[in-house]
From TrEMBL, chain A:
PANTHER family: ALPHA-GLUCOSIDASE, NEUTRAL ALPHA-GLUCOSIDASE C. Residues 165-189 are annotated as: Disordered. Residues 175-189 have a biased composition (Acidic residues). Gene3D superfamilies: Glycosidases, glycosyl hydrolase (family 31), Golgi alpha-mannosidase II. Residues 691-778 form the Glycosyl hydrolase family 31 C-terminal domain. This is Neutral alpha-glucosidase C isoform X5. Signal peptide: none annotated. Belongs to the glycosyl hydrolase 31 family. Residues 71-291 form the Glycoside hydrolase family 31 N-terminal domain. It comes from Delphinapterus leucas (Beluga whale).
TrEMBL record, chain B:
Keywords: Calcium, Coiled coil, Disulfide bond, Endoplasmic reticulum, Glycoprotein, Metal-binding, Phosphoprotein, Repeat, Signal. Residues 283-358 are annotated as: Disordered. InterPro entries: EF_Hand_1_Ca_BS (IPR018247), EF_hand_dom (IPR002048), Gtb1-like (IPR039794), LDL_receptor-like_sf (IPR036055), Man6P_isomerase_rcpt-bd_dom_sf (IPR009011), MRH_dom (IPR044865), PRKCSH (IPR036607), PRKCSH_N (IPR028146). PANTHER family: GLUCOSIDASE 2 SUBUNIT BETA, N-LINKED OLIGOSACCHARIDE PROCESSING. GO terms for biological process: liver development; N-glycan processing. Heterodimer of a catalytic alpha subunit (GANAB) and a beta subunit (PRKCSH). Binds glycosylated PTPRC. It comes from the Eukaryota. This is Glucosidase 2 subunit beta. Residues 311-336 have a biased composition (Acidic residues). Residues 144-178, 370-397 form a coiled coil. GO terms for cellular component: glucosidase II complex. The gene is PRKCSH.
Length: 892, 528
């Protein structure tokens, strides 16, 4: 029996005792305790120097006396960057590398001194200003004379400067006066300065306390979003009554929902939205981070003297956001919008856009822990054809390897992986296999031996290789933060190195929080040592990001730079969108988890990660047929669409729940495949124009207050509104159709409604409530093949839904679906459709692109024509349409 | 309002002489001289709209040779192999579905015609299968005959047993009466014997008491005046009645029944009984017999030990609790070594005279006779039970559903094993399935016989074994055994398609269907 069986974290419902709440986090306690003793910072504005890129000045805390250095940068695209660091730290503090796509171009800020004791920095146009007040130190962000955000207005700036450890400092104490008053023994325990205990674990901190914190007041804002990943609502909740949102990547099997604990990934980026303005705060820090949110609504209810009658008191709403991190520096980007679309562009300017996925990866993925052997794979693959259900990718979990040694195959179960891949290839399907960051300690395992020899593993506090327990038993963990390790890891994916791999094999990175079964909070000790001698605590949240980066690079390299990679990762950080897809980890087969998948994915989507999904059916447990059907229906309209189940669940391939349910699942998956041209075009828009694929309603309707908190429905692009059924035995759903000037069409019945109303939609088990927005054109495929590859040449259709004014626009993007030629050789087609005054025009949206296609548009559906057309004709500028003939059919 | 437009290049129209994708049987529906009527009759279209890559018919029948209809069927002739219908959506999708390659005529890929090769292989397989089926079916007929005979024999045996059972029952009744008759004198003699003994015992006890009283009187009568006075009694302070540790004059007088003294006779009659428990002999403190006389130890009869069962369990629980609380004091009461302090020491062990004397010859003879009657009766009763058991088993086997003709009966008392990398699987048909680690360890039940589990039209193609060992946090293990036609009886595979739900395949001649009357001709046949 192997070690993993014995360890087995599976089936333990999440035991919250394993994980910390805020009260168990020492830097949180320290900041809370010390901030209550108000000692404010003051900016020394006479110290201002204007460098080429930034404006610098000192800020000083009256108690600490040692000044900090603040730098303000103006960045292209209406972004400000504020950095605060020690002027001369004992040793350098960690600044997160590799997240910003390139060094952001700075724009010169013009300083116009305000009153004495203040400094104003303005952008070129002068419509955006940073107003810096010296005492107490505060920065106001002013846009068109309106203060939209204040920094440190609550005085929560906190900065623990690096100190000499007490043992050494005692030696020098005679000469110097010890300024710190709280290093007494009993305080040490409480404050966790040099040592922090949790359960059986002791975190020895060689660098001592180094935490930082800062507050941001958002004026007039009541709605904030972002900072994934939490199993929580889309709109962030007030944290004043409970725990702060925690950003600390952890492997939480069957995580609890509606909880603010950290799960697999972290994006320290928050968006705020109000009528007329969207803002972003990107806190670039990879250490453990906590975010407190305090929202004061505009309307306050107060008791009047007349008795217990609530009286409205009009005030100015405000949201205070307090960021705290265990380590590193304060490095924060202020994204000033003003529109949601602008903020998306600003954020992707910094961290990159969504990678353009290969087309197959937008199809349906079939996964299970585990498909046992080649025979099993063959049978499941055949099952899809037998039941005529399209699918694109077969997945293999950890059991495909020889004892969880990644890059190997279990020779008994998978004696001929290439033959198996040839079978999949013959149907134009792909294979994804898992590759985790832990490497089994086994000198005979080549990957281990090489990495060991070259010192590629994370080291422990004592200097040896870090060893922890994971699936294979005792393992070491590759140090992906090192460029050399990444380069080497990438090389392992070369076809000549990875035995049994072919060009239809893609990769899945799991357990990369990293998950360490017997470690504190099931992860790595914070004092483990990485490349450059950095402690794990400095970069914990970015570990998984680096693995996906190296994997994606490996897949690109094996094709000599020609083919787009596909890599799914469980752990992620800001910028992970550049490398592939993300999923929401080990969810549970319950209705509540289906429901929470929507806000969880919306949150990922607005923080740059468009290619995201949740395991269809729920990873843990056995879904009843109705739940499974509803989950397939919801998943078909979510970006990453994969069915997955844990080891001890019953088999749940789509045809195992009776004919009727098989048909319903088949239907849902076919709807996905019909809409693939639209999905692909949306991903192109995410890739080049930074617009999320799955959008919360407030993004599309930023001027409609009612949309700001909606999370049971969403927009797919700007054309489709999706309201998945997430309740058992539902017979009707309340669908909110936004926009007073909008008209909406039911995508199946073509019934239509005016916007700005909630309609009761009757639902049967085969209903997926999807509505097309008037004014849009959606490209579709009219016939569905067995995989995306089999549909390359199948004809297109256009769904034209007219607006109240009788017009519609839409876009369509097409390329070869797999290579980088769209980028390097401009081999793509980007078309624009517009319908006005009864004429549908198909024009070129990007003249740089060329791509030959045999495809035809065989069907055009026009919804919302006021009159029966008397005739239909077609024209082409070059007259080549001779060969077309037209029939028209009118339905009323 | 819905408007459907169709834009199509003319060059796509396919020349139709023999419509592509139409089977031979359906060919006559596609007459190019007439408009085409959809096979479901839903519409009629000009014939040039057949296979024009646009779907006109609801049932897809106007596009048998293109992928235009979502629900159409494409027919491959597959000359040399079997004809096949595929979903018309798979036409020209770049995947060769028909072995003759006719489904990919315009996708740019070239499909090799593999029909001949597939046909050859298929024929070989079919021939092998047919051979197996023939031989298997031959064996099956033998199995059926065997079972017919075996069943008759068993039936015969059953009848015999049933007849035998009747006389056995009579014999049991007879022996029971004899036994009861023999037990009557036995009981009387034993009772008499016991009564005598008990009387003896009582007499000797009374005599002992008398002796004790006399000796106490003598001890108390310090002045040897033949009477015990108040003062003399007061020399024994242990007789204190009010608990102050001394025997006052008044107390002593009360003990003497209000008199100032007492003579030997009335001491022994009246006073001794009141003071005997407290009285301490001046000579030998241990001489006193226990007030609670030693338990009568009887030679034969068994005495139930300790209190009733539930009480005992409670005791145990209490003990455990006490032990958990940390003391070793809570020892079992039966094993207490020191008696309570007030009670005088009682070391009197059962003496010879406490034991019941052996039965006299007469009584012993009665007992022996009764015992013999009991033995005979019990023996007869056992034989009856054995016969009943055999009858039950036979009845069960005879009435068991062994398939339409009892062809599966031969599996009834057999077991078959399959060894895989890790486990040895064992199937005992109609009984159980188990799994045992190859490298030792105890077997795990994968289920006990449940029922035939094939589909309604083919019930005997599968067996279901249920309620095996429970899985950790999961269901009880169960196994479905699929029965396949084979010449031999052998377990060919075991898998676990879903957690704790096993699938086993058993080859058996009993599963062989009747082969077609004539063996297939081995001549050239294009279509199989």
């Amino acid at each position: 029996m192997d070690a993993a069986e014995k360890i087995s974290v599976e089936d333990e419902a999440v035991d919250k005792k394993i994980f910390k709440d805020c009260s168990k986090i020492a830097f949180y306690r320290r900041q809370k305790q010390r901030l209550s003793k108000k000692s404010t910072y003051r900016a020394l504005l006479d110290s201002v120097t204007e460098g080429k890129e930034s404006t610098r000045f000192q800020i000083i805390n009256e108690a600490a006396k040692v000044p900090l250095l603040a730098e303000v940068y103006g960045i292209e695209g209406n972004i400000f960057r504020l950095k605060i660091n020690e002027e001369a730290p004992l040793k350098p503090r960690y600044e997160v590398p590799d997240v910003l796509t390139s060094k952001p171009s700075t724009v010169r800020l013009i300083s116009c001194s305000g009153d004495t004791g203040s400094l104003v920095l303005a952008n070129g146009k002068g419509d955006l200003k940073c107003h810096i007040t010296a005492n107490p130190f505060k920065i106001d962000l002013v846009s068109e004379e309106e203060v939209v955000m204040s920094i440190n207005s609550l005085g929560q700036l906190y900065f623990e400067q690096l100190q000499i450890p007490p043992k050494q400092s005692r030696a020098t104490k005679e000469n110097e006066e010890d300024t710190s008053d709280d290093t007494t023994q009993e305080n040490q325990e409480e404050l966790g300065l040099w040592e922090e205990k949790f359960r059986n674990f002791v975190d020895v901190k060689d660098n001592g306390p180094a935490s930082i914190g800062l507050d941001f007041s958002l004026h007039g804002f009541e709605h904030v979003y972002g900072i994934p990943q939490h199993a929580e609502s889309h709109q962030l909740k007030n944290t004043s009554d409970g725990d702060a949102y925690r950003l600390y990547n952890l492997d939480v099997y069957g995580y609890k929902i509606h909880d603010k604990m950290g799960i697999y990934g972290s994006v320290p980026y928050l968006l705020a939205h109000k009528l007329g303005r969207t803002l972003g705060i990107f806190w670039l820090n990879a250490s453990e981070t906590l975010v407190e949110i305090n929202t004061e609504p505009a309307v306050k209810y107060a008791l009047t003297q007349m008795g217990p009658v609530a009286a409205k008191e009009k005030g100015r709403s405000q949201t205070d956001v307090h960021w705290m991190s265990e380590s590193g520096i304060i490095d924060v980007f202020l994204l000033t919008g003003p529109t949601p679309s602008d903020v998306f562009k600003q954020y992707s300017y910094l961290t990159g856009t969504q990678a353009m996925p290969p087309l197959f990866s937008l199809g349906y993925h079939q996964c299970r822990w585990n498909y046992k052997d080649e025979h099993d794979v063959k049978a499941v693959d055949a099952g899809f054809d037998e039941h005529d259900i399209p699918y694109d990718v077969m997945w293999l979990d950890i059991e495909h390897t020889e004892g969880k040694r990644y890059f190997t195959w279990d020779k008994k179960r998978f004696p001929n992986p290439k033959r198996m891949q040839e079978l999949l290839r013959s149907k134009k399907r792909k294979l994804v296999v898992i590759s985790d960051p832990h490497i089994k300690i086994d000198p005979d395992y080549l990957v281990y031996a090489k990495a060991k020899e070259q010192g590629f593993f994370v080291r422990n506090h004592e200097g040896g290789d870090f060893e922890g327990v994971c699936w294979p038993g005792l393992s070491s963990y590759l140090d992906f933060t090192s460029p050399k390790v990444r380069e080497w890891y990438s090389s392992l994916f070369a076809f000549s190195v990875y035995q049994g791999s072919t060009d239809i094999l893609y990769i899945w990175n799991d357990m990369n929080e990293p998950s360490v079964f017997r470690g504190p909070e099931l992860t790595m000790q914070k004092n483990a040592i990485h490349h450059g001698n950095w402690e794990h605590r400095e970069l914990h949240n970015i570990y998984g990001f680096y693995q996906q980066m190296a994997t994606a690079e490996g897949l690109i390299q094996r094709s000599k730079g020609k083919e787009r990679p596909f890599v799914l990762t469980r752990s992620f950080f800001a910028g992970s969108q550049k490398y592939g897809a993300v999923w929401t980890g080990d969810n549970t087969a319950e209705w509540s988890y289906l429901k929470i998948s929507i806000p969880m994915l919306l949150t990922l989507s607005v923080t740059g990660i468009s290619f995201c999904g949740a395991d269809v059916g729920g990873f843990i447990g056995n879904p009843e047929a109705e739940l499974l059907v509803r989950w397939y229906q919801a998943g078909a309209y979510q970006p990453f669409f994969r069915g997955h189940a844990t080891k001890n669940t019953k088999r749940r391939e789509p045809w195992l729940f009776g004919e009727e349910h098989t048909r319903l699942i088949q239907e849902a998956i076919r709807e996905r495949y019909a809409l693939l041209p639209y999905w692909y075009s949306l991903f192109y828009s995410a890739h080049v124009a930074s617009q999320p694929v799955m959008r919360p309603l407030w993004v599309e309707f930023p001027d409609e207050l009612e949309t700001f908190s909606v999370e049971d429905e969403y927009m797919l692009g700007s054309a489709l509104l999706v309201h998945p059924v997430t309740e058992p035995k539902a017979t009707v759903v309340d669908v909110f159709l936004p926009g007073s000037s909008e008209v909406w069409y039911d995508s199946k019945t073509f019934a239509h409604w005016e916007g700005a109303c909630t309609v009761k939609i009757p639902v049967a088990l085969d209903t997926i409530p999807v509505f097309q927005r008037g004014g849009s054109v959606v490209p579709i495929k009219t016939t569905i093949g067995r995989s995306t590859g089999c549909m390359t040449d199948s004809p297109y259709g256009l769904w034209v839904a007219l607006s109240t004014k009788g017009s519609a626009v839409g876009e369509f993007y097409l390329d070869d679906g797999h290579s980088f030629q769209y980028l390097h050789q401009k081999q793509f087609l980007h078309r624009k459709f517009s319908f006005t005054s009864g004429v549908l025009i198909n024009s070129c949206a990007d003249k740089r692109g060329h791509y030959p296609s045999k495809c035809v548009v065989e069907q055009i559906l026009v919804l919302g024509l006021k009159k029966h057309p008397s005739s239909v004709t077609s024209h082409s500028p070059d007259g080549k349409l001779d060969g077309f003939w037209i029939t028209a059919q009118f339905l009323t | 309002m819905l408007l459907v437009l169709l834009l199509l290049p003319m060059c796509w129209a396919v020349e139709v002489k023999r419509p592509r994708g139409v089977s031979l049987t359906n060919h006559h529906f596609y007459d190019e001289s007439k408009p085409f009527t959809c096979l479901d009759g839903s519409a009629s279209v000009p014939f040039d709209q057949v296979n024009d890559d646009y779907c006109d018919c609801k049932d897809g029948s106007d596009e048998p040779g293109t992928a235009a209809c979502p629900n159409g069927s494409f027919h491959c002739t597959n000359t040399g192999y079997k004809p096949l219908y595929i979903s018309s959506r798979w036409v020209n999708d770049g995947v060769c579905d028909c072995c003759d390659g006719t489904d990919e005529y315009n996708s740019g890929i070239v499909c090799e015609n593999t029909c001949k090769e597939k046909g050859r292989k298929e024929r070989e397989t079919l021939q092998q299968m047919a051979e197996v089926t023939r031989e298997g079916f031959r064996l099956k007929k033998i199995l059926i005959e065997d079972w017919k005979r075996a069943r008759e024999e068993k039936q015969k045996k059953l009848t015999e047993l049933q007849a035998g059972k009747k006389s056995l029952e009579d014999q049991v009744e007879l022996l029971r009466t004899l036994k009861e008759e023999a037990e009557k004198p036995e009981k009387e003699a034993k009772d008499q014997h016991r009564k005598l003994w008990e009387e003896q015992l009582a007499a000797s006890k009374a005599q002992r008491e008398q002796e004790l009283a006399t000796s106490a009187f003598q001890e108390l009568d310090d002045d040897m005046d033949g009477a015990v006075s108040v003062a003399e009694l007061q020399t024994h302070p242990e007789l204190d009645t009010d608990g102050d540790g001394a025997l006052s004059e008044g107390e002593a007088q009360t003990l003497l029944g209000g008199d100032t003294q007492t003579d030997a006779a009335s001491f022994s009659d009246r006073i001794w009984a009141a003071i005997r428990d407290k009285y301490r002999s001046e000579v030998l403190p241990t001489d006193l017999p226990s007030p609670s006389a030693p338990a009568l130890t009887e030679p034969k009869e068994e005495q139930p030990l300790g209190p009733s069962q539930p009480a005992e369990e409670e005791d145990e629980e209490e003990e455990e609790t006490e032990e958990e609380e940390g003391g070793e004091e809570g020892e079992d009461e039966d094993s207490q070594e020191t008696p309570p302090p007030v009670v005088p020491p009682q070391t009197v062990s059962p003496t010879e005279e406490d034991k019941m004397p052996p039965y006299d010859e007469q009584t012993q003879a009665f007992i022996n006779a009764a015992q013999e009657a009991r033995n005979k009766f019990e023996e007869a009763e056992r034989s009856l039970k054995d016969v009943e058991e055999s009858i039950r088993n036979l009845e069960q086997e005879i009435s068991f559903d062994f398939g339409p003709n009892g062809e599966f009966a031969y599996l009834y008392s057999q077991c078959y094993e399959l060894t895989t990398n890790e486990y040895v699987y064992r199937l005992c048909p109609f009984k159980l399935v188990s799994q045992k680690p190859k490298l030792g360890g105890s077997p795990t039940s994968l289920g006990t016989w449940g029922s035939w589990a094939g589909p309604d039209h083919d019930k005997f193609s599968a067996m279901k074994y249920e309620q095996g060992t429970g899985c950790w946090q999961g269901p009880n293990r169960s196994t479905t055994v699929r029965l396949l036609c084979g010449k031999e009886t052998v377990v060919t595979s075991t898998t676990e398609p879903s957690r704790c739900e096993y699938l086993m395949e058993l080859m058996t001649p009993a599963a062989c269907p009747e082969p077609p009357p004539e063996p297939p001709a081995s001549g050239n046949r294009d279509e199989l």
